Prior knowledge:
17% of the residues lie in helices and 41% in strands. By secondary structure, the protein is of the alpha+beta class. It has a single domain, classed as Roll (Thiol Ester Dehydrase, Chain A). It has a six-stranded antiparallel beta sheet, covered by helices on one side. The mean pLDDT is 91.
Amino acid sequence: MNKVETNEWCFACGKLNPIGLKLEFLEQDNKYIAEFTPGAEHQGYDGVVHGGIISTLLDEIMARYYYAKGFHAVTARLEVRFRKPTPVGRKITVCGWVIKERGKMIEMAAEIRLADGSVSAEGKATLMIVGEVKS
């Protein structure tokens, strides 16, 4: 499969994945941003987004930032801090940014913000660049 076919099945951003999140991204003010409205199928406890989905959103916003710049980056380490429940059925904003670059190792941070501006989860990741993305 070529790059497009492979990534179209990505759980987080792939358009062909029938159960995927289908995230769309934009870069603004040195931050990578996606908006998402989690549904009932994304919950753990009633009305609350599952922690695995929260972790996926944070991981994706950080790793995909470098992919969009033409690099194949993989997550070497991921840390998630859950600050408060993230409700289903309400739009959230996922935002990631670079903290430090050291050769092929990148430190990033991310957060999930609710509509009221409060932060429901934070993430930190160490990414490793493993090559350039082939077109």
